[in-house]
Design brief:
Largest sheet: 5 strands, mixed
CATH architecture of the largest domain: 2-Layer Sandwich
Order of helices and strands: HHHHHHHHEEEHEHHEHH
Number of strands: 5
CATH topology of the largest domain: Nucleotidyltransferase, domain 5
Number of helices: 13
Number of domains: 3
CATH superfamily of the largest domain: Ribonuclease H-like superfamily/Ribonuclease H
Strand order of the largest sheet: 3-2-1-4-5
């Protein structure tokens, strides 16, 4: 609260950046994103946080006296605010719907013949216009927002009904493919160091993984398979039933063909105590298991030369099965 109040009250751009850096690092924001937003280096951010913990708000205040010179008039700044609030870059001749500091700076320079030395000035304009910083998510062209909203409403209602029933299990399921193709992810290194990751130049081998996240306790159930088809899916469901022999299973998964195959449908009918709820089409972010895959890839397979696909997949599955995950679905999340 103290940092938020300071950010709202101060008119000093440097002080805003320092306070934002401390606030973001406390929220465990990616350090690279903090660097982009505040133009402060990794060491500066952590030094600021240490000073703030020792000295409080005074550590963030600019020691230099005097008010910086305004290079835009009040009238011009108001015009800029009006543009940000009512227009998109595409309306001004740019080929995008999204604002960024580069586009804003280019438009200001072309309109008012003014160029700021620091991006902070543009950040403050976005802040004044009540913009927030986001990384755009992927949105599938055939996604139906009404369908997604309806799914959220009905799923939340169903989970509310069964969440506290001890004999009911809620599982979120998905499959992924692990290959010997090396995936590269950014890393932090000391200045001057240059990273190299060995990559495969042979044929690509692959293995499938079925994953089920227990939404009540965060436990993961994962298995390595050769393929994804209705016969294997039935075998995996049988393994799930061994783990939960008597419980009512509410299973969330997508509409993949192997989920709807006749062999799977016959097994579900025979079991009689597995309720299927399909995720909406083209909305993978609604499935918590997708986040489990991302976590596992980041820790187990990125920046790694995979020579033995079976060994790598076994290690991946082992990590999943000994780790608990706290991802939410329509407001419900595990109690760890």
């Amino acid at each position: 609260m103290e940092l938020r109040s300071f950010i709202k009250e101060t008119k000093n751009g440097n002080e805003v950046r320092r306070a934002q850096a401390v606030l973001l690092i406390d929220r465990e924001t990616n350090i690279e994103d903090i660097n982009v937003l505040t133009e402060l280096s990794r060491s500066q951010v952590f030094n600021l946080r240490s000073l703030f913990l020792r000295e409080g708000i005074e550590a963030l205040k600019d020691k230099r006296e005097g008010k910086p010179k305004e290079i835009l008039s009040k009238k011009q700044r108001k015009e800029i605010m009006d543009i940000l609030e009512t227009k998109k870059p595409k309306d001004l001749g740019f080929q995008t719907d999204f604002w960024n500091t580069g586009i804003l700076g280019h438009w200001i320079e072309g309109t008012y013949k003014v160029r700021y030395k620091s991006r902070t000035s543009y950040y403050l304009m976005f802040k004044e216009a009540r913009f927030t910083y986001h990384k755009p998510g992927r949105l599938y062209h055939e996604r139906n927002e009404k369908e997604v909203l309806k799914w959220r409403q009905t799923s939340k209602k169903r989970l509310t009904q069964i969440w506290n029933q001890e004999d009911a299990v809620v599982l979120s399921e998905d499959e992924m493919i692990l290959t010997t193709e090396t995936t590269i992810q950014k890393v932090w290194l000391k200045e001057g160091e240059r990273p190299f990751v060995e990559v495969s130049n042979g044929g690509r081998k692959r293995r499938s993984i079925y994953g089920f996240l227990n939404m009540k306790n965060g436990r993961e159930h994962a298995w390595k398979t050769e393929y994804q088809n209705m016969y294997i899916t039935k075998e995996i469901l049988e393994k799930i039933r061994v783990i939960y022999p008597q419980q009512k299973i509410v299973l969330f998964w997508d509409s993949a063909g192997w989920h709807k195959g006749s062999v799977v449908q016959e097994y579900l009918k025979q079991d009689g105590n597995i309720e299927i709820i399909h995720f909406p089409r083209y909305a993978p972010e609604e499935n918590p298991q997708e986040h489990v895959w991302k976590n596992g890839r980041s820790l187990c397979s990125h920046n790694k030369f995979i020579e033995n696909i079976d060994k790598a997949t076994d290690e991946f599955v082992s990590y999943l099965n000994i780790t608990k995950f706290q991802y939410q679905m329509v407001g419900f999340s595990p109690k760890l």
